Structures are given as C-alpha cells and as structure tokens.
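PROTEIN DESIGN WORKSHEET
SECTION A - STRUCTURE
LENGTH: 528
TOKENS:
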C-alpha cells in the first residue's frame, strides 16, 4: 500500500488550509499536484530522513537565536511517512533549530508524490543544498541587506534578534552597508574572504583614500587588518595632537626643557607654566604623540635649573648641555627602526588586548591547547609568572583584559563548567605576561639587543600560544614568536606609514646597533 493511504494525517488536512481539493476529498486517489502544498505542521509529527546526507547540522548560535526569535521562515519539504507523521526531505537544520528553540510547529511544503520515490528525495536534498545549485550572499551582500532593512525602518534590536547576530556585528554590518560603491567594488575583487568586521574597518576610514588603500592592501596580502587599522589610528592621533598644539620643529636656541626647571622652588609643569610668555612645545622624534614642553628663555622668566638649585637657569637642557639645535636621532636609520618598532609593538599590544577581551575571555570553554599551555607554564614557572603571577589579579590590566574584577571570577568558580574553569585559570597567567610585555622595559622585548624582564623566548612561547587560539599575529609579534629579529622589510611596503620610507631599517635592516637606552621613549631622562 502507498504510504499516503496509510497516513491518517493526510485525511485530517483541511482543504482551505493546506492541500488541493482533490487530495482532501479523496486521499486514496493519490493525486500528484504540480507544486507541494503548504501548511503549519506540528514538530512532534516530523521525522528526520534516515538517509540525510548532511553529517553536520552546524547549529550556530546565530542561526538558533534567529529561529527562536522569528521562527522558521523557509518551509521544510516533507512527504508522508509510513504509518503516520511526515518525513523531512529538506530542512533538517531548520527542524533541529526549531526543536532547540522549543517551537511547536513549523511551516512545511508537502509533496505526497515523493513518498514512494526515495531516489527523488535524495535528488531534492542535492538540489536544495549543493553550492552548484544555490548561491549564498557574500558578506558585502549581507551587509547591504541589513543596511537596507535598517533604512526601511528596522531597528538595530529587531535586526539583532531576527538574525541572531551580536550588537557589535549589527553595528559593523550597518557601517559596512554605507561604504561607497567604489570601495565595495575594490573589496569584492579581492580573493580573500571578507568578514563584517573587515568591512566595518573599511567604513571607519571612509573618505581617507590613503587609509583605505592601506587597508585594502592588507586584505589582499592576508595581513591582519586590525593591526594595520591600529597603526593608522596611531598616525591620526599624532597628527591631531600636532594640530592641537602650537609647536616648533625643534628645541629653540636658548630654550630649556620644562622638566629641568623650577620656579620659586616648585617643579614646573605644563599647567603651571602655561601662562609664561616662554611656553612652547615640540615633539621628540621617538614620541610623536606626546609633546615635550620647554621655556624659550628660562632665566629671563625667573626659572631655575632643577640640577643647580638657586642658580638662574641658563640655556641648559635636562642633561646640563647647551640646548638649541640638537641632532634628531630619527635621522639615524637604526634609530628610525627603533621608533617604528616601538610604534608597531604598541599597536600590536592594543589590538591584542582588544582580542583577549572580546574573543578569548568570553568563551565558554578552552581548547586542549590552553590546558597544555597552562600545565607547562605552571610546571616551568618562567620569569614572567614567578614575578608577575602573585600580583596579576590586583592589577587594573586584569579587569580590562578579562572584563571582570578578581572577586567576580572567584564567585564563578564554584558553578563554572569544567571547560570554563580553564579560561578562569588563564586570566592571571595572561595578565602576568601582558604586563611583562607592555610595561617599562618590557616594551623593548621586540628588540634583540635590549634587556627585558620577560625573556624573548618566553614571550615567543606566549604569542605562539595566542596564535594557536586564533589570534592573528602582526609582523613584529611573529618575529618574536619565531625568535628572529624584526625589520621593517618584514612588513609589506604598502602598509607602512607614508612618511616613513621603506629603507628606514638602515644597513642590513638589523636592530643590533639600535642606539643607546636614553633614546627610547620609555627613558625617564627623555620623557616630556
């Protein structure tokens, strides 16, 4: 007997709701409609096809959240099952998400004619799911659709619930949807698959042709886009700071650095000196973001040297040497390499910290690599941990990276799943490493010729571990992970700051003669 004649569900269908009048009037007639009939069917009556070829239903958080919010919007294709109920031909992923969301019923297209045609059922699966017969939206098209929906009146909350995307993803999509047509065209021509986050970065610098070109080059070359974006932000911050302050190109003749001066026994500061007629600023080549303040004529304005208390300040700088036109260390190619490297290392740290806060510590479980790393680190107890681990949870950096204070993490340990506990244990270890890599002399760890409280080999192990978790290393981080010197030629020329020529690395591009310690931005004697 044909399955349709055994299935009481067919006879129960109401003609006005779902199927053709012929089928409703005489189920035994086994009509073959030109198109499947559609109705809402109880989830409990649906059975997955026993031969479903899709091995992984890939029930992503986004998809499940979307089904929970909007229901199943695309009908399943079903056919009567033997005895009772319905066999699903197409839509197993939608059915699984509906069950996960607790939906009572889902829309279905009923094709009674497929009940006795098992070969046709497999053909339907192929035609519905193969890339050869369907084309999903590109990320650019997804962004365009979300942007159009928003323009048509859909709120961000509605878009978030309907698509299952996070608020950050919706924000990125709407930013990407506003990209100009020429940028979209250039992005679409690239071989590398784009993400919404990539497009949002392009939108952030929309209107800046040079920045857009650098970002597109990064995408084309497979270079971590966020690192390039952070360097562009650095350049913009420096330019904005320069524009805000009236500055000179260098320390004028007869001037003295403000941090070397006192007035009436009190150290001068930029605020206390602001009303002085000799108030001025310049930018030292190794720190183009923070101004270095000076007084053009300290003696005539009643200032005294900190180093010769009670003596009117002559034209002396912080070291007691005659001031005026001093050689710019940036003219030394090896010094320019250090300047560029310091910027690259700081930019990498900024990106890394954002990644840790957004992509690692919110995870519900840790992969095996994290357990292996933790075990080895605690057994070996390298320098960064032996000195930094005892105080890691008390540092402000701990809360910035992990998203919570120490007390919160303590409270969660009793109820956290086993996988989540590994993330908790990583928190102080990672904080100790990040403090060692970004504080004081640790900022010079990228150099092969300088002391760092965190040995370069330990830093390389740590960065390689982050890479195993999915963090994209920048060129300077990769050099540390590989145990090799960093030179500017490891970064594609198209990604470099325009006013820093590619030959800044100097002869051989090495860092072994990178200059004295006092040239570093972290040197107390040189800090403004």
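SECTION B - SEQUENCE
RESIDUE ASSIGNMENT:
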């Amino acid at each position: 007997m044909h399955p349709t004649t055994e299935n009481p569900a067919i006879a129960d269908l109401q003609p006005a709701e779902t199927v053709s009048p012929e089928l409703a009037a005489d189920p035994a007639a086994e009509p073959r409609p030109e198109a499947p009939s559609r109705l809402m069917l109880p989830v409990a009556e649906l059975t997955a096809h026993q031969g479903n070829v899709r091995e992984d239903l890939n029930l992503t958080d986004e998809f499940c959240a979307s089904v929970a919010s909007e229901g199943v919007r695309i009908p399943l294709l079903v056919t009567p099952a033997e005895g009772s109920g319905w066999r699903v031909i197409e839509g197993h992923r939608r059915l699984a998400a509906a069950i996960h969301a607790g939906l009572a019923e889902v829309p279905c297209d009923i094709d009674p004619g497929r009940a006795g045609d098992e070969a046709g059922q497999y053909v339907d699966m192929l035609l519905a799911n193969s890339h050869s017969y369907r084309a999903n939206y590109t990320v650019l098209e997804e962004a365009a659709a979300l942007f159009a929906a928003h323009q048509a009146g859909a709120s961000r909350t509605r878009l978030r619930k309907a698509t299952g995307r996070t608020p950050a993803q919706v924000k990125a999509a709407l930013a990407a949807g506003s990209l100009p047509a020429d940028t979209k065209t250039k992005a679409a021509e690239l071989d590398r698959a784009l993400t919404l986050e990539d497009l949002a970065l392009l939108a952030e610098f929309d209107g800046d042709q040079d920045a857009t070109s650098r970002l597109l080059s990064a995408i084309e070359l497979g270079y971590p886009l966020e690192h390039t974006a952070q360097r562009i932000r650095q350049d913009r911050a420096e330019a904005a700071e320069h524009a805000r302050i009236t500055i000179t190109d260098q320390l004028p003749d007869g001037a003295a650095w403000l941090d070397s001066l006192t007035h009436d026994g009190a150290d001068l500061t930029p605020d206390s000196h602001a009303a002085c007629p000799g108030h001025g600023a310049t930018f030292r080549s190794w720190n183009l973001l923070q101004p270095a303040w000076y007084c053009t004529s300290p003696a005539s304005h009643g200032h005294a040297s900190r180093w010769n208390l009670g003596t009117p300040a002559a034209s002396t700088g912080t070291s007691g040497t005659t001031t005026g036109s001093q050689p710019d260390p940036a003219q030394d190619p090896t010094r320019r390499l250090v300047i560029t490297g310091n910027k690259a290392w700081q930019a990498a740290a900024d990106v890394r910290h954002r990644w840790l806060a957004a992509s690692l510590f919110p995870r519900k479980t840790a992969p095996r690599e994290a357990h292996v790393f933790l075990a080895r680190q605690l057994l070996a107890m390298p320098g960064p941990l032996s000195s930094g681990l005892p105080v890691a949870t008390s540092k402000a950096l701990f809360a910035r990276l992990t998203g919570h204070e120490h007390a919160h993490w303590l409270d969660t340990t009793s109820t956290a799943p086993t996988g989540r506990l590994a993330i908790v244990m990583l928190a102080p270890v990672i904080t100790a490493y990040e403090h060692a890599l970004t504080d004081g002399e640790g900022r010079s760890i990228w150099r092969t010729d300088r002391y760092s409280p965190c040995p370069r080999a330990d830093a390389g192990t740590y960065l390689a571990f982050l890479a195993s978790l999915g963090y994209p290393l920048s060129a300077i981080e990769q050099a540390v992970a590989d145990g090799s010197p960093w030179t500017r030629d490891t970064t594609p020329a198209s990604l470099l700051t325009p006013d820093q020529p590619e030959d800044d690395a100097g002869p051989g591009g090495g860092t072994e003669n990178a200059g004295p310690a006092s040239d570093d931005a972290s040197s107390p004697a040189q800090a403004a």
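SECTION C - NOTES
The two ends are 92 Å apart (CA to CA).
The first helix runs from residue 3 to 6.
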